[in-house]
Design brief:
The chain crosses the membrane at residues 32-54, 61-82, 88-108, 115-132, 144-162, 169-192, 212-231, 238-260. By secondary structure, this protein is mainly α. It has one domain. Helices cover 75% and strands 0% of the residues. The chain is globular.
Length: 285
Amino acid sequence: MTALFALATSLLWGLADFGGGLLTRRTPALTVVVVSQAIATAVLGAVVVALGGWSEAGPRLWFAFAAGLVGPVAMICFYKALALGPMGVVSPLGTLSVAVPVGVGLVLGERPGPMQFAGIAVAVLGVVLAGGPQLKGAPVQREAIVLTLIAALGFGMVFALIAEASTNVTGLFLALFVQRVTNVAVGGAALYASVRRGNPALPATGFPWSSLPTLAFVGLADVAANGTYAVAARLGPVTVAAVLASLYPVVTALAARGFLSERLKAIQAAGAGLALVGTLLLATG
């Protein structure tokens, strides 16, 4: 079941990233983050009230609060790194985030078997290659590398924190709600600061009302992915859950191929194949 929930996480995150990437072509990235997370927060709030989730409030919610603080910072750093580029270097580097939860699992005493270790190595290599690493061309700015590494550390911390934020399903909804409220607060503050510096919060055509369904999907898919990852990490080894969940760049690349007819590079196709092999090794190990 760990593999099933972790793969669901990679599917949801991959589709959310694809939708978010489409939206940021027309709308500032910070606005996309804040609006999509606000929609998800409203839905989660209604679920928490319906389930009586407040009864699960406790010290573990600090993990959710911390994840909510770290997540937007990591996302902003990643977007800035992508803007500096080249994306062919930045995107694969972002997958280093998997090192954090895998490291936490090992510190806590998890010891994957030989087959699973092989699967981890093959899957991580596949994810990096699926990102289409740029092996030559424009030089990489030091700032882009630093921002990407900060973002990878932040994403990895969110992986680790959200896995510790609850012990049951009702508590998980409350933890995700707290995380999203914090996300919106941090993202909103960053958006306000950006506007104060003279950057637009909306495209020239005004608020993108026609994009609301996509914004809602991005926010809710991201929330659902956090939830399925937390379940995966509870049901089995964090090392396995984290690696399988990190396959989301493969999903994003395949979505771009399917919906936008973007052609995969040979190195991306090879990466997707290796990721699949790594997944099978992990699932059967």
